[in-house]
Amino acid sequence: MSMNSFGHLFRVTTWGESHGPALGATVDGCPPGVTIDEAMIQQWLDKRKPGQNKFTTQRREPDQVKILSGVFEGQTTGTPVQLMIENTDQRSKDYGDIIDKFRPGHADITYWQKYGIRDYRGGGRSSARETASRVAAGGLAREAIKQIAPNVQITGYMTQIGRHKIDRGNFDWSQIEQNPFWTPDAQAAEDWANYLDELRKSGNSVGAIVEVVARGVPAGIGAPVYAKLDTDLAAAMMSINAVKGVEIGEGMAAAELTGEANADEIFMGQNGPQYSSNHAGGILGGISTGQDVVVRFAVKPTSSILTTRKTITKSGEETEIITKGRHDPCVGIRAVPVGEAMMACVILDHLLLHRGQIGENRGRIG
Amino acid sequence: MSMNSFGHLFRVTTWGESHGPALGATVDGCPPGVTIDEAMIQQWLDKRKPGQNKFTTQRREPDQVKILSGVFEGQTTGTPVQLMIENTDQRSKDYGDIIDKFRPGHADITYWQKYGIRDYRGGGRSSARETASRVAAGGLAREAIKQIAPNVQITGYMTQIGRHKIDRGNFDWSQIEQNPFWTPDAQAAEDWANYLDELRKSGNSVGAIVEVVARGVPAGIGAPVYAKLDTDLAAAMMSINAVKGVEIGEGMAAAELTGEANADEIFMGQNGPQYSSNHAGGILGGISTGQDVVVRFAVKPTSSILTTRKTITKSGEETEIITKGRHDPCVGIRAVPVGEAMMACVILDHLLLHRGQIGENRGRIG
Amino acid sequence: MSMNSFGHLFRVTTWGESHGPALGATVDGCPPGVTIDEAMIQQWLDKRKPGQNKFTTQRREPDQVKILSGVFEGQTTGTPVQLMIENTDQRSKDYGDIIDKFRPGHADITYWQKYGIRDYRGGGRSSARETASRVAAGGLAREAIKQIAPNVQITGYMTQIGRHKIDRGNFDWSQIEQNPFWTPDAQAAEDWANYLDELRKSGNSVGAIVEVVARGVPAGIGAPVYAKLDTDLAAAMMSINAVKGVEIGEGMAAAELTGEANADEIFMGQNGPQYSSNHAGGILGGISTGQDVVVRFAVKPTSSILTTRKTITKSGEETEIITKGRHDPCVGIRAVPVGEAMMACVILDHLLLHRGQIGENRGRIG
Amino acid sequence: MSMNSFGHLFRVTTWGESHGPALGATVDGCPPGVTIDEAMIQQWLDKRKPGQNKFTTQRREPDQVKILSGVFEGQTTGTPVQLMIENTDQRSKDYGDIIDKFRPGHADITYWQKYGIRDYRGGGRSSARETASRVAAGGLAREAIKQIAPNVQITGYMTQIGRHKIDRGNFDWSQIEQNPFWTPDAQAAEDWANYLDELRKSGNSVGAIVEVVARGVPAGIGAPVYAKLDTDLAAAMMSINAVKGVEIGEGMAAAELTGEANADEIFMGQNGPQYSSNHAGGILGGISTGQDVVVRFAVKPTSSILTTRKTITKSGEETEIITKGRHDPCVGIRAVPVGEAMMACVILDHLLLHRGQIGENRGRIG
């Protein structure tokens, strides 16, 4: 029972701090015979990598992944895969008063209250940098899914920055790769660029909402009651740095619906059941329906801003702080590939669980 | 690794179907020496019990809990506590076409697609009745918490039914026990009564939002990265029947905030750090701050409604269905004690985890 | 993470004390569609049941199992199976000075030192009665194995009582069911009967060795490094009440062999690899070879004997104790069905794990 | 649930193959504030290191450990500690017919049958080299134990090589560090040196027995029923490469004892209960008594010998094999520090578990 692990059969343990020698993911339970190499994982890390455009932090790290174990002659062996990313941007710098002052909205203070140890160099385990390990593990999960359920496609995108939401009428899958926000609404991308530009100049930051969809997930994966597919997705997304809310399908809006409006009616399609709508987000009773699995999560604004804030020191004195240095006006942008990675890990895990308990899918309809 | 268990050290496994002989919770890892008897647990089951007013289902079950193990002479022994609730309302009845037809919005179809076994009697494990087991376990957790952190107070209440939200200006803790909705807003209670009355007559149902607050939680419990306090709360709440969204603190609304607005400033109080606000919901980096821990979740409307809906049969034929019998116009009401129970289990679990890894709290401020 | 659970995917949690209302096993992860009823489980409990002959304790309990959940219309549903055995022999009796005195060789004293709670009524969780729950779970596991690997046959038998070992030259599988010791050596059965008769009269007790063999286990189940098939078997057997040693294949005697003598040479048979011998006990590197899986364990003599022994009281005073009442001259006899049950649970668990990670067996030879 | 992990709260996941770039241990759940550096761990790796004398394999690896995470300014932070050992001896060599032939007694064949992937370079995860990771984790565990139970002392030693046992009359703790076998019997060390010299020359190998003792373990650690201290020790030792049997206290010999002989009588000492003997090996009902915790395990002879053996190829053809290259006449010698490491990990884990569930020890005697 590791507090730094997730997954049941596809088990990922992440380790490492933002300013130590390296960080990474120890992945156990991967099926053998999955074709994989470092480049196949690197593509996803490159997507998450900071410093790619002016809307993300300017820390420039190559984030180069190395496979240290579990792969032989280009295939997984079925034993633990160690994915390591060395930290190259460990420049010695003047941490100044960060060493003693807690940053409001940061985990500095709670880590101190829990452990009595203060790694002031950059957030330690609470740094967004930890998510690089997840993205690496997710890259492996994607390849393993192909072996079992080749039709699965996992795509994340932004639906909201600050108060600015996408227009669902503009939704276009092909736009997602065309803009720095991975948003399916080309108009929103343009508006957001202007909005964030101003925000960055003012030294402020803002929150965002990311949606991740898994298409082609076979019906029947998931499990009652505490390993429901939605339970595991909620945990996976909420565990991401700065996430404060998670929704499946209608999410919080389900509160406003009547039973009549909410029930997705069922029809018989050529390849099994089809539904009139997808309020459920592809999950009923914790088990996939075969529809798109739809998860959404909110990312809070980064607390590293250029405004002076009141705080206290380790010795309990009241003071003020201003966080100089690299800023991410909207840390939610970089959460897109992270959300995709978590979705991939959860889907693979439940494919394996299903195969373990049940083998071939048993309940045929029609 | 049980799919029907939750918790790390305080480990709860629920079992049983809505129409079998009994259901219950096997609770392992409870500290020894906790004073407990059946009446202390029964009070919480009585709160959740259906049939108490016209706004909840009229199924009348005594839901009487029996302690079968782990308690000797009124105290827990430290070994597994078996909490059993016998099903008394197992009247043989005519299930009619439910046997072959899937109810839209129900887990009928996904259970069939997963297991190839159909327990048509009432939802099996996906029934809301499963939550009685959680409430029983939560009753034990509340008593155990008193042994370790006696100031903890856990309270759930409704903040929204359909589109009707409470007015936070009317918030009054003392109102919560005074109305059938456990809502802190007396005016809302009155309005909701009228609204639900009409909804019930029309045979429709509606969703709701429940908020659960834990006051008095010591700073420092929780753990990075996949056993964060918020991660475990998200999983706990999302695992409840019919929940579609979970929020911590600002929740989804965090997307709309700027970093300047969102950062809770820190001051020094008499008993440690104090904050200017609680956007964080009492959790930073997965670890408690000492502020109120605030969780919210949305419950979808029950799909058992008196409107005819399109569906299919086990053999794949298209047909229609109308669910007769007992209806819950707002199943979210009964989710209040369930949410409280899950909060109690998670808080206790993390108190034990903290004590295990670290012993006495280490990081003193001031 | 329950301290009272074992298994990875086929997860068994036992609960209950020897003198409470009931005890049982909560079994999660069983495949759906396994044909099962109470009688199929009862047969194994009857085998373990005390009071069947003069060589086991005279406590007479019907040990009647009830299935409370997870089975519908004679088949497992894939959800938790609750197996309950009510304690009927809870006669109020005079515990006398047992209440305050610790019995040497019993867990009385360590339970007290750990929990500070003393259930003096009969050993609580440390009672051999807990093993009834395992036998019930094992009965279910046997039926589930048939669904996946129908050729598996699990048989336990005694190979030693006190200093009296069986003669391997007399080994006859058909004898095992013919004598009260489940031993394959008819001559040993006769000798042991006389030996135990005298021992019982003298109020003494003796240890024993039990061997459990699983035949027909497919090659390839198990997993490095801490879920090796032999690791899990060692844990499963060592967790049985009173067991002090566990061996796989040659076991402790492997220390005396040379590499030349120990290596099982490999040949090609009609259905795959065959071996010149089975020093390995059917397991190499934690993974099954397809040969018989052979486990052996030693059971210490029961400490409830009619000889006065020195001990102390709860308040630390030195005193003496003599255990009156029901005695088991060789508690090892009743461990035979328990060992079989644990073997069944472990084999099933690893069949499921293998199917989960790998699906169909991948490595074909020839 | 990782198949390559062990421990409940102090959770160790080992990863890496004998001939990949690196191997190591990801350690989660270590208490914060433990003083540690690479040298403190290195000392134990040096003890296990091959090539130190003529009785162990001549593979010369520096086995240099690097701490990649979880330690800041010389102290553990409470987050995962990554311990990496790079493989420097990866010389490209001619594997010859090993690529296709299975070595009798090796896990070659079962890994192939399980995974369908063959890492012929040196045993992969089944190599004895995996145990270096355990030794590193054990080094950390030893330091963490000091924080909680400073009187604990863990010592391993050999008691038997082939048929040659130590004379318990010669037992001298101070001898253990004085000979290449870590044996407390100086005379045995002399005899064994001659015996192994001949064995090595003849290209043969032999098994051994290792005993590990933990002194100063407080009474009350461990837990019923499947996380008993002895259960976890049995699993820990059986998971070590080439181990075929595990004993606690009297072990298999308990079968030969009468209840009268086996029961350790209890007296009252100055610091709590004392016992007339320690047949129990320091554990009753899965919980420590405060006496020495005594574990013993048998290591089979290595199968890499210079005698021709019959085997088959991957394609199922019968053939012969002879293993050239580096040989370990008694691989059991290097198992001594490995057994110590596993003991340290298990003891620490149970100290944390006890503190988690119970806090301060509750049951006082006297």
From TrEMBL, chains A, B, C, D:
<dbReference type="GO" id="GO:0010181">
    <property type="term" value="F:FMN binding"/>
</dbReference>
<dbReference type="InterPro" id="IPR000453">
    <property type="entry name" value="Chorismate_synth"/>
</dbReference>
<keyword id="KW-0521">NADP</keyword>
<feature type="binding site">
    <location>
        <begin position="125"/>
        <end position="127"/>
    </location>
    <ligand>
        <name>FMN</name>
    </ligand>
</feature>
<feature type="binding site">
    <location>
        <position position="285"/>
    </location>
    <ligand>
        <name>FMN</name>
    </ligand>
</feature>
<comment type="similarity">
    <text>Belongs to the chorismate synthase family.</text>
</comment>
<feature type="binding site">
    <location>
        <position position="54"/>
    </location>
    <ligand>
        <name>NADP(+)</name>
    </ligand>
</feature>
<dbReference type="GO" id="GO:0008652">
    <property type="term" value="P:amino acid biosynthetic process"/>
</dbReference>
<protein>
    <recommendedName>
        <fullName>Chorismate synthase</fullName>
        <ecNumber>4.2.3.5</ecNumber>
    </recommendedName>
</protein>
<comment type="pathway">
    <text>Metabolic intermediate biosynthesis; chorismate biosynthesis; chorismate from D-erythrose 4-phosphate and phosphoenolpyruvate: step 7/7.</text>
</comment>
<feature type="binding site">
    <location>
        <begin position="241"/>
        <end position="242"/>
    </location>
    <ligand>
        <name>FMN</name>
    </ligand>
</feature>
<dbReference type="Pfam" id="PF01264">
    <property type="entry name" value="Chorismate_synt"/>
</dbReference>
<dbReference type="GO" id="GO:0009423">
    <property type="term" value="P:chorismate biosynthetic process"/>
</dbReference>
<dbReference type="GO" id="GO:0005829">
    <property type="term" value="C:cytosol"/>
</dbReference>
<keyword id="KW-0057">Aromatic amino acid biosynthesis</keyword>
<feature type="binding site">
    <location>
        <begin position="300"/>
        <end position="304"/>
    </location>
    <ligand>
        <name>FMN</name>
    </ligand>
</feature>
<dbReference type="GO" id="GO:0009073">
    <property type="term" value="P:aromatic amino acid family biosynthetic process"/>
</dbReference>
<comment type="function">
    <text>This reaction introduces a second double bond into the aromatic ring system.</text>
</comment>
<comment type="subunit">
    <text>Homotetramer.</text>
</comment>
<feature type="binding site">
    <location>
        <position position="326"/>
    </location>
    <ligand>
        <name>FMN</name>
    </ligand>
</feature>
<keyword id="KW-0274">FAD</keyword>
<dbReference type="InterPro" id="IPR035904">
    <property type="entry name" value="Chorismate_synth_AroC_sf"/>
</dbReference>
<dbReference type="InterPro" id="IPR020541">
    <property type="entry name" value="Chorismate_synthase_CS"/>
</dbReference>
<keyword id="KW-0028">Amino-acid biosynthesis</keyword>
<keyword id="KW-0288">FMN</keyword>
<dbReference type="GO" id="GO:0004107">
    <property type="term" value="F:chorismate synthase activity"/>
</dbReference>
<feature type="binding site">
    <location>
        <position position="48"/>
    </location>
    <ligand>
        <name>NADP(+)</name>
    </ligand>
</feature>
<keyword id="KW-0456">Lyase</keyword>
<keyword id="KW-0285">Flavoprotein</keyword>
